[in-house]
Amino acid sequence: MAIPPVPARQLFIDGEWREPILKNRIPIVNPSTQDVIGHIPAATKEDVEVAVNAARRAFSRNKGKDWAKAPGALRAKYLRAIAAKVTERKSHLAKLESLDSGKPLDETVWDMEDVAGCFEFYADLAEGLDAKQKAPVSLPMESFKSYVLKQPIGVVGLITPWNYPLLMAVWKVAPSLAAGCTAVLKPSELASVTCLELADICREVGLPPGVLNVLTGYGSEAGAPLAAHPSVDKIAFTGSFATGSKVMTAAAQLVKPVSMELGGKSPLIVFDDVDLDKAAEWALFGCFWTNGQICSATSRLLVHESIASEFIEKLVKWSKNIKISDPLEEGCRLGPVVSEGQYEKILKFISTAKSEGATILHGGSRPEHLKKGFFIEPTIITDVTTSMQIWREEVFGPVLCVKTFSSEDEAIELANDSHYGLGAAVISNDAERCDRVSQDFEAGIVWINCSQPCFTQAPWGGIKRSGFGRELGEWGLDNYLSVKQVTLYTSNDPWGWYKPPC
């Protein structure tokens, strides 16, 4: 397969490519080969200032009539044009995503289809937004009428992760633009290439200058000043709990609204009435999809004790059959993790688990046939206690921990014993049991007889330390709208509270 060159891009500000003010750049490392394959611009606070000012001008241009107060149909036209260009460039974008992040090509192709679908979905919602304006509010007094306006929040800062570089950026970009906001996008420095390609698409379709600005760079140099900027009206963040806490602290100084998706340590409960092979595949997919780098990964597997031995055998057999390779190779199902730092961090987690008494049943190291790249075998760990680091902390790699349970109540207690609450899954042929368990899970997303499916139409987000707010669906649009109450006094009679003057 021909490997596309990585385009040399600058920062995208006010509809133009601009060199960073300090002229710094960051190397792009292919995680499969560890080779430097290009560079991205490194924005700093000086560039953030320029980008935010551009977004502010775009929001208020022509008293808002060019974008923020324009008909939803106008914004929808641009979103659909972007979707069409993403579809046109799908193959190229998917290859760039694989080169940059290490995700298998079949996954990145799927991601690009979802990117286009996300823009299309929010184009429809943008069109429908106008018809929902002035929704009446029922009041108990006949002399008053009230209605609600939904208006764009303003300039939004969007800080996004590297595991779904373009898709998770678009989860924020598409609804924020549909709502009428203008945006500054700061993707992760570990995988930014396709976000710069999105900027090129926006330029090509003629998106008004300043509506979307894309700043690549380090979190401390670009993300932090964006979160703290007084002219940014809201921050939407996806990433780690530690970084999210810093973003919230910065936003709190100005009482700036935030929405947070901060990862998790999600459970998957497998009961004793299941087809073992079907359940085993879902268990592995739920943890090893996207090279194990999923915020919602069901990495805590709870198996009924009566089937545990046979089920774990199945897991190992299925794991041995997973093709680990360069992500551009046909049939690849597990590529490298994104960076050397992540690679070392995951191996340290595995080493600590072993030193704490857990058993590394399968995997746990570099595959023998791959001498270069940040590859880690799919790893299955047993003999785990609930106090172990590997059970309690997010690994963000292809590492599955297995524990047994004897009753439904015990399974729920173990599943909910976590600081996180993003996703949770249950596999059972008993529909009533699945309904009970889904209601008892402390999580924002529940899967029944599957793990990880995600649809643009359905809400996405967590509770506890997994964050707050919801992306996707109509809830994703609401993230970027403020609600304004308008109340009219309709009577011809004076109010009559004060005695009139003589």
From TrEMBL:
It catalyses: 4-aminobutanal + NAD(+) + H2O = 4-aminobutanoate + NADH + 2 H(+); betaine aldehyde + NAD(+) + H2O = glycine betaine + NADH + 2 H(+); 3-aminopropanal + NAD(+) + H2O = beta-alanine + NADH + 2 H(+). It comes from Brassica oleracea var. oleracea. PANTHER family: AMINOALDEHYDE DEHYDROGENASE ALDH10A8, CHLOROPLASTIC, BETAINE ALDEHYDE DEHYDROGENASE. It holds the Pfam family Aldedh. Its EC number is 1.2.1.19. This is aminobutyraldehyde dehydrogenase. GO terms for biological process: cellular detoxification of aldehyde; glycine betaine biosynthetic process from choline; response to salt stress; response to water deprivation. Belongs to the aldehyde dehydrogenase family. One of its GO terms (cellular component) is leucoplast. Residues 24-486 form the Aldehyde dehydrogenase domain. It comes from the Eukaryota. Pathway: Amine and polyamine biosynthesis; betaine biosynthesis via choline pathway; betaine from betaine aldehyde: step 1/1. CDD domains: ALDH_F10_BADH. The lineage of its organism: Eukaryota, Viridiplantae, Streptophyta, Embryophyta, Tracheophyta. GO terms for molecular function: 4-trimethylammoniobutyraldehyde dehydrogenase activity; aminobutyraldehyde dehydrogenase (NAD+) activity; betaine-aldehyde dehydrogenase (NAD+) activity; gamma-guanidinobutyraldehyde dehydrogenase (NAD+) activity. Keywords: NAD, Oxidoreductase, Sodium. The active site is at 261. The keyword NAD applies. InterPro entries: Ald_DH/histidinol_DH (IPR016161), Ald_DH_C (IPR016163), Ald_DH_CS_CYS (IPR016160), Ald_DH_CS_GLU (IPR029510), Ald_DH_N (IPR016162), Aldehyde_DH_dom (IPR015590).
